[in-house]
Write the structure tokens for this entry.
Amino acid sequence: MTIDATTFRHVLGHVPTAVVLLTILDEQGVDRGMTVGSFCSLSLSPPLVLACIGNDATIASAMRGATQFGISALADDQEALSRRFADTEARGFDGVRYHRGPNGLALFDDAAAYLECRITARHPGGDHTMVVGEVLFAQATLRSPLIYHRSGYARLAK
């Protein structure tokens, strides 16, 4: 017996998650990005992370051809950036401050943490695809993270 989608979403909304932007270079070498709601560490040895991409996401088809991805874990004052990349009608990278990581991926300035990953596996998972990445570069800053909790953006208490 399974639960209904409304109950499932409500209960999982009580579990805070980091707000991250995932970036790739598509097959034409164009930067693509999206806000990802499901991201976590997977393994320490080797260093692996997991990102879940909705099969209907605007980036999904480009993600299938990607060999690596970048992660910018947003800082607590970057909610507008998260909303921008969650919007399918967004203007993309125009006017957004970012830099290139050591592996050439776009990473957003002033984030709380950065990762660049080589894609090692993809697995179907319901209406999403789980993308496993081996971490090639990682850097943390002193900025506080933006989190998502109970259907809204939140900040850690200081």
